[in-house]
Design brief:
There is one protein chain. This protein is α+β, with helices and mostly antiparallel strands and about 1000 residues long. The protein contains 17 helices and 39 strands. Strands 1, 4, 7, 8 and 9 form a five-stranded mixed beta sheet that branches. A five-stranded mixed beta sheet has the order 16-17-10-13-18, with no helix packed on it. A five-stranded antiparallel beta sheet has the order 19-34-33-36-37, with helices on one face.
């Protein structure tokens, strides 16, 4: 009991804002009733004030401090019936006890007023400070505290007794029933009647808004417009008055699953549907005009006045506290001149705009009266609310930060075409009509078969046939031609038999792609088919050809570089496995971007957007125009089928939304690219990091800024994740019927070209330069810089071996005598306890790797300029790398580069020869190329067999180890005998021309 009397809850009712007028005269006389745990307090009445200021503090006894979090604090606002016609409800607030703060941490929080029923007309917010204090039990006796509580209740007791309060609540319930019985179609009158002419004291009810969205905005009448402007001038002008509490309310738990990796960006939404005229004047085309700060936007001009357009204004672009919507009509006079007439204007205070967060239902539009002295009686239907980028209307809305309704600046999702390998097996031909009529057949034709699918053209090898009666005229190839086919497929596969000797076609046939069989593995061989060859007009029949055609569903068609692949699934859906995880990427923003182009010829600017690619899904954010620190805050998800894949993210400057004088769009400029390998990420962990954007230009590497990305790789089953590491990287067909390296490289670049062409035909297109940069389509082109980088990568891999060799040499030469002595001891232990060798090695590896866990990489790695050697590359080497294929440089420049390439190739050629010579010397030891050397080796093998039969193996290992580790004073300066013998063995180098 002592604990229950020591805690007090303090509620400070500070003020209220933008209350709903309830007295029939455009104002209200408000007071608040605070209820907590059976205790009630009442504030004073602020007469005729929609923004009352109370600053009254009340204290409540907390009966049970442990259960305080389960109690509810309720504040109800009423319009005083003594000052108005009836005591009416103005709104309520409920605060859970778990939200109470301890004294010292309190702050002024504005809570939006809640409705009592669906049809209640409530708006505004109330400012409260709520906190509790734990008092010293010795400071206030329990008896004094118990006596003080009733006294405080009496001091703050409202003028009406408890019975009057109960009667007031009964009247409110009756009023609530009346509101619910009113039809939903009832609309707000265009003018509120004076109190003496209005027999019904209840204020006019507006059209019922959606149940999920509270506080629909009320239009500001012209009478109150001046007052609102004056009060707005007293408040500090901001873009959009949204504090942290309001932003948290916009980012509620209901939609955190969709946008939990990015910040919520507040947007002001205006949906303009249609207008109607009260008079029967000319019904010409009309449009609506929105003015907010420096923004002035028009809807499309329609004759039926039905626009249905949504506009979204971002917070950074707003510099006003009011929104004006006006409707204009276009009329033509007799001289064909167009005259625009304003039908009226309606204004909104941005502080009164309601907030909406999905999955709330959309805000119901309402009719608003247009204020106009020239043409009264006109209405416009619209809806105004504050939402975030998660709003369903955002993607199709006019966006202020993306230039409006420009298609090239909108956020889009693209899908790569589904790719297949098409295998054509050319078996043989029969009954070919190769003769020359009545002329004697004196030549021997050389034939080959070529096949064409779209722009792809492949040929078989050549074969000659004899024309004598005894020779066969049915040439056979049995060769496979593999194409890349993309859905929807080309209509036909064209097969042609050609004669090399005269360059003419023997005949051709067309295979319909719709009839081609699909197979998913190597167990079922597709059926072969015969096709008639069609010749020219003089030879309608050219013979027959025997082929086998099928679409290979067991392969994965590689359309990106193998080291950065993001998808390894087979083409056939039947073979696709279920996803093992989910990849969520939040593209938050970029900072310190450098200007890429000039605007109006006076200053630099950047219109940045981001492209992310994983698997067949490409996402493109909206373009933020003319900002060096854009904030996209867009979030996307992908299914993950293999953890050893990479996500590619590129940043570009949009140059396609503007066209030149000839009407052609520009090109997008690359700003930078990053990659994140999923296998380097911990599961179910959010990585929020900024990555440097570096781009290689003809003048060298340049840092273009930074991009902020949030990544989360979530996996539901650890077992599936571990199994993925034990399964092959590619589908089974790649190992059962592998494609050759050269063939695979050709097919990969063909697939790249198909994907590039398909995405470039999308609307809006994803530019060729963007797709090629994301797919690394130029990795096969010669580059001095890449060659250096790969060479030093090889050297880096051999560094560990070189370090081990130096360590062994130091031990052998007794650089550190104690270490060499310990190695002798280790050698003895290995010889006498060989069964402990492997356990010791693996335990040592276990301990070393576990100890290195704390030094692991915590941040996903990005592009490394030092590893890429972009900081030491010369200008001529960069110019060579950016040169096209074939080259476009002058002959003297090409000659210099060719000589340099020959010098490098000469060194590589010598290195390859030296490596080959070592293997050839070892082979020569066994094939008697040098009879004396092989004879010496034969005698050595005989003696060694006898020695090892007599001498135990342990003694041999121990003696060899001691001999190898002998002190340098017992070692000669010349090479050893076995090394001299091996170097004297012959190789095939002397037989090379």
């Amino acid at each position: 009991m002592a604990e229950t009397s020591n805690r007090k809850l303090t509620v400070e009712v500070c003020n209220a804002k933008n209350l709903m007028p309830k007295d029939g005269q455009g104002t209200a006389s408000a007071y608040a009733i605070v209820d907590y745990d059976g205790q009630r307090r009442r504030t004073k009445t602020k007469s005729r004030d929609l923004n009352p200021q109370w600053d009254e503090r009340f204290e409540f006894l907390v009966n049970d401090a442990d259960s305080m979090h389960t109690e509810i604090l309720e504040i109800n606002l009423y319009n005083d019936k003594k000052a108005g016609k009836r005591s009416t409800f103005l709104g309520k607030v409920k605060i859970a006890g778990s939200a109470f703060l301890k004294a010292g941490s309190e702050t002024l929080v504005y809570y939006p007023l809640e409705k009592r029923s669906v049809f209640s007309q409530i708006k505004g917010e109330i400012g409260l400070k709520v906190f509790y204090v734990d008092e010293d039990p010795q400071a206030v006796p329990a008896e004094a505290a118990s006596e003080a509580a009733p006294q405080a209740v009496e001091e703050e007791k409202p003028p009406e007794n408890q019975k009057a309060v109960e009667e007031e609540k009964k009247e409110e319930k009756a009023e609530e029933k009346k509101e619910e019985e009113k039809p939903k179609e009832e609309e707000t009158p265009k003018e509120e009647k004076p109190p003496e002419e209005n027999p019904n004291p209840t204020p006019p009810a507006a059209a019922a808004p959606s149940a999920e969205v509270e506080n629909p905005p009320l239009a500001i009448s012209e009478k109150l417009k001046d007052t609102k402007v004056k009060s707005a001038e007293m408040v500090k002008t901001q873009d959009l008055q949204l504090n942290d509490h309001e932003l948290r309310s916009l980012a509620g738990d209901r939609s955190r699953s969709a946008y939990d990796l990015v910040d919520r960006m507040p947007f002001l939404y205006v949906r303009v549907l249609k207008a109607k005229r009260g008079s029967t004047e000319s019904n010409g085309p009309s449009y609506a005009k929105l003015v907010i700060g420096t923004h002035s936007i028009k809807t499309k001009s329609q004759t039926d006045k039905d626009w249905d357009q949504v506009f979204a204004f971002d917070k950074e672009g707003l510099n006003s506290t009011s929104l004006e919507v006006s409707v204009w009509s276009e009329e033509k006079k007799e001289n064909e001149e167009s005259v625009e007439n304003c039908l009226g204007t309606v204004s909104f205070d941005l502080q009164e705009v309601p907030k909406r967060v999905p999955p709330d239902s959309p805000l119901a539009p309402q009719w608003y009266s247009l204020e106009s002295e020239m043409s009264p009686g006109n209405d416009v239907m619209l809806a105004v609310w504050i939402g975030t980028q998660a709003d369903e209307a955002f993607q199709e809305a006019w966006q202020s930060d993306s230039g409006g309704l420009i298609p090239e600046t909108r956020a889009k999702v693209y899908l790569s075409p589904k790719l297949w390998y098409l295998r054509l097996t050319v078996i043989q031909t029969q009954d070919l009509q190769i003769g020359l009529g009545s002329e004697p057949k004196v030549r021997s034709p050389v034939l080959y078969v070529k096949a064409q699918l779209g722009p792809q053209l492949f040929k078989t090898g050549r074969t000659s046939i004899g024309l004598s009666p005894s020779s066969s005229a049915n040439p056979t190839w049995n060769e496979d031609l593999v194409f890349v086919a993309a859905e929807p497929f080309e209509p036909f596969l064209v097969i042609t038999v050609e004669d090399v000797t005269n360059g003419c076609s023997v005949g051709h046939t067309k295979v319909q792609m719709s009839t081609v069989e699909r197979r998913i593995d190597d167990r079922a061989e597709p059926k072969s088919r015969w096709f008639n060859l069609v010749g020219d007009e003089s030879k309608p029949y050219g013979g027959r050809i025997h082929v086998r055609v099928c679409l290979e569903g067991g392969y994965h068609v590689l359309d990106e570089a193998a080291h950065v692949t993001s998808d390894v699934r087979p083409a056939a859906k039947q073979l696709a496995k279920s996803p093992i995880g989910l990849l969520v990427v939040g593209i938050r923003g970029a900072t310190n971007l450098l200007p890429v182009k000039t605007k109006d010829g006076t200053r630099g600017t950047t219109d940045a957007y981001v492209v992310a690619k994983y698997g067949p899904k490409w996402v493109r954010t909206r373009t933020i125009l003319d900002r060096f620190n854009p904030r996209w805050n867009e979030q996307y998800t992908w299914d993950v089928f293999d953890p050893c894949t990479a996500l590619t993210i590129g940043v570009y400057d949009n140059g396609r939304y503007k066209r030149d004088e000839g009407g052609k769009p520009g090109k997008d400029v690359r700003v930078g690219k990053i990659r994140v390998r999923l296998s380097t990420l911990d599961t179910n962990r959010v990585y929020l990091n900024s990555y440097s954007l570096t781009v290689l230009l003809p003048g060298g590497a340049k840092k273009m800024g930074e991009i902020e990305i949030a990544v989360r790789f979530s996996c539901s089953s650890w077992l599936s994740l571990i199994q993925a590491y034990a399964s092959p990287m590619l589908p089974r067909m790649h190992y059962v019927h592998p494609l050759g390296p050269a063939q695979q490289d050709i097919l990969r670049h063909t697939a790249m070209r198909i994907v590039t062409a398909r995405l470039a035909r999308s609307e809006p297109p994803l530019g060729q330069e963007v797709v090629q940069f994301m797919l690394d389509s130029d990795t096969h082109v010669w580059s001095m810089r890449r060659s250096k980088a790969n060479w030093f990568r090889v050297v880096g891999c051999l560094t560990r071996a070189a370090t081990l060799a130096r360590w062994l040499d130091g031990i052998r030469t007794w650089v550190h005598s104690p270490t060499t002595v310990l190695v002798h001891v280790l050698l003895v232990a290995i010889v006498f306890c060989p069964h402990l060798v492997l356990p010791t090695v693996f335990m040592y590896a276990f301990l070393i790797i576990v100890l290195r866990f704390r030094y692991r990489q915590r941040v996903p790695l990005n592009m490394d300029p030092r590893l890429s050697y972009v900081d030491v590359v010369g200008p001529d080497e960069l110019d060579e790398e950016f040169d096209g294929f074939p080259t476009t440089r002058p002959a003297d420049v090409v000659r210099i580069r060719y000589d340099r390439l020959r010098a490098l190739a000469g060194r590589a050629q010598t290195l390859l020869g030296d490596v080959a010579a070592q293997g050839e010397r070892l082979e020569a030891l066994f094939n008697w190329r040098d009879p004396r050397a092989t004879g010496i080796f034969v005698v050595f093998c005989l003696i060694a067999s006898l020695v090892f039969y007599v001498v135990p193996f342990k003694v041999f290992v121990l003696g060899s180890g001691f001999y190898y580790l002998r002190h340098p004073r017992f070692r000669g300066d010349m090479p050893s005998v076995p090394l001299n013998f091996f170097r004297r063995l012959p190789s095939l180098s002397d037989q090379i021309l």
